[in-house]
Design brief:
398 residues; single chain; mainly alpha; 0% strand; 18 helices; globular; Na+/H+ antiporter like fold
Length: 398
């Protein structure tokens, strides 16, 4: 069957799943994911792995648009209202998630290298899951602003944490030593390069769109910029999310009026793209992996959740952030998908050749993270909705 048939089927099935989810008072994202899960290899296999392989471009496009919109929400005026404490919160939730997962896995396995790698997986979030829920419920307020900032920036910190943890894990397995420069060179290049790439494209798009009035022209240039940024990031092995986040931030802060028009128009056409993205994500979830998760997976889920929620609360309390941020921010950042899976795949590549210990580590990491992703992708959007509802921020955006 032609691939366009499957694209259309994903939109229809995702739409129906989203409506059923809404009737049950869950976010639409949950319905998209479950629709993909049912139609994917785990059940009906209508969206087979062969079909899903051809859909990769939709993943990158959706992540590009989500990152662009998150970056556009991170205007300096908004960040000043949140305060410098947002940096404290990001470090606190990321490091506490790492520390609790590290501790839990170490007490279970007594293997330092396993604890380090699983700990490094914990800080990575899924910006799309959180951002789409915020947009669906038209959320606005201090908690919403903080959520946009945290899910946009903590993936960069997660990449750095993984780099250090992987180096220490290799030393634990092989006994070799690496210099500080060798450890940090890769993530520094990836993060710095992504920021510079996105910033340059953000300035260019702002310069050209500030003189354009037609909505069609603004849409064409905005989509082109996001796609070019994503394509170059992938080609240069940079972070696609951080590149488009930087694009949105520079565009919003230097060319505010033009950026608002771009975001408004992109939001108008983004629904089918997001629907396809989450249906694909749901189809990739493999129920058969859940039994293999075992006690290690349960410890990972509990420790990561406690670390993110507790770390966000502690960081917000120390920085004297708004009470709603302190109470509910941690619930809004539980989603985990693409970046964590990417780091797990990277761990498989980095450790599979390091003897029996490295091979065992790579198998355990990829299977456990893939399995726990199923849990976090379902509960994450639900927890985000609960957080913004308790904070009273649903329906505030016009």
């Amino acid at each position: 069957m032609d691939i366009l048939f499957f694209v259309g089927l994903m939109i229809i099935c995702g739409f129906i799943g989203g409506k059923i989810s809404n009737c049950l008072r869950f976010p639409s994202v949950v319905g998209y994911l479950i629709a993909g899960l049912i139609l994917g290899p785990s059940f009906l296999n209508i969206f087979s792995l062969h079909v899903l392989e051809k859909m990769g471009v939709f993943n990158d496009l959706a992540l590009s648009l989500v990152a662009f919109i998150i970056g556009s929400e991170m205007r300096m005026s908004t960040l000043r209202k949140i305060g410098k404490g947002i940096i404290t919160i990001i470090f606190s939730e990321s490091l506490m998630a790492f520390a609790l997962v590290f501790t839990g896995v170490y007490f279970l396995t007594h293997k330092l290298y396993l604890a380090l790698i699983f700990g490094a997986m914990a800080p990575a979030s899924a910006p799309a899951g959180t951002a789409v829920v915020l947009q669906e419920y038209k959320a606005k307020g201090p908690l919403t602003n903080a959520l946009y900032a945290v899910v946009g920036l903590d993936d960069g910190l997660a990449i750095v944490i993984y780099a250090f943890a992987a180096a220490l894990a290799k030393m634990s397995i092989t006994g070799s030593t690496e210099s500080f420069f060798q450890i940090t060179k890769g993530p520094i290049i990836e993060i710095t390069g992504a920021i510079l790439l996105g910033s340059a494209i953000g300035f260019l798009i702002g310069y050209f769109t500030r003189k354009i009035r037609g909505k069609k022209e603004v849409l064409a240039i905005s989509l082109a910029a996001a796609m070019i940024c994503a394509g170059l990031a992938n080609y240069l092995h940079l972070s696609l999310i951080l590149a488009n986040l930087s694009l949105g931030m520079v565009y919003a802060n230097l060319f505010l009026f033009a950026n608002r028009r771009s975001v408004e128009i992109i939001n108008f056409i983004s629904f089918p793209i997001y629907t396809i993205f989450f249906v694909i994500a749901g189809a990739h979830l493999q129920i058969s992996l859940l039994p293999a998760m075992g006690l290690l997976g349960i410890i990972y889920i509990v420790c990561r959740s406690c670390g993110l929620i507790g770390g966000a609360y502690f960081g917000a309390a120390v920085s004297k952030a708004d009470p709603v941020i302190r109470k509910y921010l941690g619930l809004g950042i539980l989603s985990q998908a693409g970046v964590a899976i990417g780091l797990a795949i990277m761990a498989t590549r980095d450790f599979a050749h390091l003897g029996a210990a490295g091979k065992d580590l790579s198998i355990m990491v990829i299977n456990t993270i893939a399995a726990t992703t199923i849990i976090f992708e379902i509960i994450g959007p639900i927890a985000t909705k609960f957080a913004i509802r308790k904070a009273g921020e649903i329906g505030k955006a016009k």
